[in-house]
Amino acid sequence: MPSFDQAALEAAADAIAAAGRWLAQRDWTPATSSNFSARLDDAHAAITVSGRDKGALGRGDIMVVDFDGLAVGTDRKSSAETLLHTHLYRRDPGIGCVLHTHSRVQTIASRLYAADGHVRLEGYELLKALAGNATHEMAVDLPVFPNTQHMPDLVTQVDAWLDTGVPAWGYLIDGHGLYAWGRDVGETLRHIEAFEFLLDCELQLRRLRT
Amino acid sequence: MPSFDQAALEAAADAIAAAGRWLAQRDWTPATSSNFSARLDDAHAAITVSGRDKGALGRGDIMVVDFDGLAVGTDRKSSAETLLHTHLYRRDPGIGCVLHTHSRVQTIASRLYAADGHVRLEGYELLKALAGNATHEMAVDLPVFPNTQHMPDLVTQVDAWLDTGVPAWGYLIDGHGLYAWGRDVGETLRHIEAFEFLLDCELQLRRLRT
Amino acid sequence: MPSFDQAALEAAADAIAAAGRWLAQRDWTPATSSNFSARLDDAHAAITVSGRDKGALGRGDIMVVDFDGLAVGTDRKSSAETLLHTHLYRRDPGIGCVLHTHSRVQTIASRLYAADGHVRLEGYELLKALAGNATHEMAVDLPVFPNTQHMPDLVTQVDAWLDTGVPAWGYLIDGHGLYAWGRDVGETLRHIEAFEFLLDCELQLRRLRT
Amino acid sequence: MPSFDQAALEAAADAIAAAGRWLAQRDWTPATSSNFSARLDDAHAAITVSGRDKGALGRGDIMVVDFDGLAVGTDRKSSAETLLHTHLYRRDPGIGCVLHTHSRVQTIASRLYAADGHVRLEGYELLKALAGNATHEMAVDLPVFPNTQHMPDLVTQVDAWLDTGVPAWGYLIDGHGLYAWGRDVGETLRHIEAFEFLLDCELQLRRLRT
C-alpha cells in the first residue's frame, strides 16, 4: 500500500501539468530540459519522470519520490536532478513547489554573471512579486552556482547559501537555468515570471548602457 | 442601494476583462502587476480588484470606487495605485479609461530615461495613433516620474505636469511601467500599443546608433 | 449599377481579410496603421476602409476605388495613402496586390537607412523568395523614401524609381513602414515575410559586427 | 507497382507535416524556404514537394525519392536541395530524418561565423539534448559551409567533414540556415530546438560581452 495520498498525487500532477503547458508555451523548457515537482506531505513529493515533453505532461508523466530522491511505488526514473528538489522540501516545510526552467534569458544571465556569483536585482517595482516583498526599495541577489553533473555538490552549495538566512526564492546554475520555489505552484510560477522579467531587463539595460 | 448603474458596471467589467486578455497575451501584465479601470459616471469608476491574474479577469474581479479611491458597495480591496486612476477621472471628464501596464520595454525605457525625466518620441508615423495627432512632424515627450509606494506624491507630480496643458496620453514611472488613458477602452489600448511600439523603436535605435 | 464585378470584390475582400489576420498575428499592423488592397480589374481595386482593426477585417471593411483613388459606389473613406496603391495598379498590369505594413523592424530600418536612401540586402538565400530571383548571388537595394503627409510627392518619387527599370518588390518610407506588392495576395505576403526576415538579419548583424 | 511501403509513406508524411506545423509556428520556415524528409527504407525517403507552405503540409505535399534524389512514382518535383537529404540516408543507416530550417538566428550565426568555418558551442547544459551527450563539459563545433546553388559541391564538403568521424547532428550553410538530423523526427526536432537555443545564446552573449 502506498504511503502517500493518491488524491493529493492526482491534484499535484494536474497542477504540474498545467504549469508545464504555461512554461512550454513561453519556450522556457526547451528540448525536454526542465523538471517540476510539488510537495505531497512531509515525506513525499510528486515529480516529473525524466525525459518527457514538459508542454504535454499527463498524470502518467508524474511519479512519487521520497526526500532522499528515491522512487516510491514505481520503477520509473525521475530526473538526475531530483535531489535539488527534495532537499528543499526537507529543509523548509513552507516550500510546496519547486520548478526548474531553462530559458534563454536564464541561461545567458547565468553565464554572464557566473564569475560574480550572483545577479543583483534592484530598483524594480516587480520585486514586489517575490513573496514577502512590499516595496521596490530593496535589492535581491540571485545566486549563480557552478554547473556540475554531481548533484550532492550542488545541494551542499545551495544549503550553505540558505543557511545564511537571506530571503530566498530561487537560484541560477551556470549555463543551465533557474531553480525557483514557493508556497504552491501558483506562487512559484509568479516567482519564475518575475525572475525572467527582471533578468531580461538587466541584460537589456546592460547592452543599452555600454 | 448602489449609487451607480449596474448595467454600466457590467459593460465596463466586460470591456476591462477583454482588454486584460489582449494585454496579457502580449506579456505586458506579468506576475499580477498592472491594474485597469473605466469610468462609470461623473463620480464612479470600475477598477480591477488587487492581485488578480490580469489575463483571466471575470466580472467578480472588477469592483467600484469613487474618485477619492474608496470602495463603493463592496469590502474588496482595489490596487494600492487606485488614486492614480481616480484623480484622472476627476480632473478630465473626457477620460473614460485608464490602463496601467508593465512590459519589459516600458520598464527598461523608464529606467534608462529616468534621469532625463522624459522620453522624446519624434519623427514616427505612428505618433498619429495618439488621439488628436494628424502628422508625424511633431515630437511627444513621454514623462518619466520617480517611483514611490506613496501614491499622493505621484498624484501631485502628475497633476503638476497636466497643469502645464501639454497634450497628454500617458506617462512612465521609473522601474514600474506605463499609465495610459483615452476616451474609452479601445482608444486607450491603441495608445498603449503605440507607446510600446515607439519605446521599443527608440531603445533599438539607441543600440544601433552607438 | 457598379462598374466592377461583385464576386471578384467578395473574393478580394476575403483574401485581404485573411492576409490581415496573418499580418496582425505577427504584430506588423499596430494601432490601426497599415492598409491593404487587391486589383479587381484594369480600372478598380478593393482596399481597406480607413481606421479599421487590420486583424479583424470583414467584407464590410473593404471598399472599391478607381485608379485615381476615388471611392466607387460608396461614401466610405479609404486610407489617405490610397494613391500609393492605385498608381502601382495603373502603371503595371502584373501587380495584383499591394500591402502596406508597419512592423518595428521595418520602422527601425527605415530610420537607420534613411540617409543612405536604401538598404542593401546581399548574400542571403532568402532573396530567392522575391519573385524572379533564382540565386543568392545578387544584391537587392530596398529604397527608403522620406515620409510626407502629401501623397502625390511620394507617388512622384516612387514613379521615378520604378522608371529606372530595376526589379522592384517594395520600398520603405522613413519612420513609417513597408509597401510591398506581387502578382497576388499570396506572393505579396511572401515578399513581406522575406523583407521582414532580411531587414531583421541586417539590423542584428549590424549590432553584432560593431 | 511502387517499390516502397505505402503505409510507411503515410506515417512519414503525417510525422513530417506535424513537424512542419511545429517549426512554422516558431517562424523557422519563412517564405516557403526549408525542406523536410524521413527515411522509408534502405533505398527511399519521403520528402516535401518544392515550394509548399511548410506550416500547412498534407499528404499530397510529400513525395518519394531514391537516394540519388530522383522522384519515384510521381512527376512532382522535390526541392533543389534533395541531394543534401539523400546522401545522409545513404551514408548512415542510423539517420531516420533530415530537417532543413531557416530561422533568423541560424541565418545570422551562419553569416557571422562563416569566416571561422564553425560555431563553437561550449559549457551549456543543453548540449545534453544532442543524442549521445551526457555532460555539459564538452564542446561541439557546428560547421558553417559556404552557400552554393550547386548541390554536389555541398555534398562533397559535408561528406569530407563526416568522414573525419566527429560526432555530427547538423551543419549551417552561410546565409541559408540549418540542416539537422536524427534517429527519427522527434529526435531531429530536439536537435533543431537545441541548436536554435545554443546559437541564440552565443549571439546574445557576444553582444553582451563586447
TrEMBL record, chains A, B, C, D:
<dbReference type="InterPro" id="IPR017714">
    <property type="entry name" value="MethylthioRu-1-P_deHdtase_MtnB"/>
</dbReference>
<keyword id="KW-0479">Metal-binding</keyword>
<feature type="binding site">
    <location>
        <position position="102"/>
    </location>
    <ligand>
        <name>Zn(2+)</name>
    </ligand>
</feature>
<dbReference type="GO" id="GO:0046570">
    <property type="term" value="F:methylthioribulose 1-phosphate dehydratase activity"/>
</dbReference>
<protein>
    <recommendedName>
        <fullName>Methylthioribulose-1-phosphate dehydratase</fullName>
        <ecNumber>4.2.1.109</ecNumber>
    </recommendedName>
</protein>
<dbReference type="GO" id="GO:0019509">
    <property type="term" value="P:L-methionine salvage from methylthioadenosine"/>
</dbReference>
<keyword id="KW-0456">Lyase</keyword>
<keyword id="KW-0028">Amino-acid biosynthesis</keyword>
<dbReference type="Pfam" id="PF00596">
    <property type="entry name" value="Aldolase_II"/>
</dbReference>
<feature type="domain" description="Class II aldolase/adducin N-terminal">
    <location>
        <begin position="14"/>
        <end position="203"/>
    </location>
</feature>
<dbReference type="InterPro" id="IPR036409">
    <property type="entry name" value="Aldolase_II/adducin_N_sf"/>
</dbReference>
<comment type="similarity">
    <text>Belongs to the aldolase class II family. MtnB subfamily.</text>
</comment>
<dbReference type="GO" id="GO:0005737">
    <property type="term" value="C:cytoplasm"/>
</dbReference>
<comment type="function">
    <text>Catalyzes the dehydration of methylthioribulose-1-phosphate (MTRu-1-P) into 2,3-diketo-5-methylthiopentyl-1-phosphate (DK-MTP-1-P).</text>
</comment>
<dbReference type="InterPro" id="IPR001303">
    <property type="entry name" value="Aldolase_II/adducin_N"/>
</dbReference>
<comment type="pathway">
    <text>Amino-acid biosynthesis; L-methionine biosynthesis via salvage pathway; L-methionine from S-methyl-5-thio-alpha-D-ribose 1-phosphate: step 2/6.</text>
</comment>
<dbReference type="GO" id="GO:0008270">
    <property type="term" value="F:zinc ion binding"/>
</dbReference>
<keyword id="KW-0486">Methionine biosynthesis</keyword>
<feature type="binding site">
    <location>
        <position position="100"/>
    </location>
    <ligand>
        <name>Zn(2+)</name>
    </ligand>
</feature>
<keyword id="KW-0862">Zinc</keyword>
<dbReference type="GO" id="GO:0005996">
    <property type="term" value="P:monosaccharide metabolic process"/>
</dbReference>
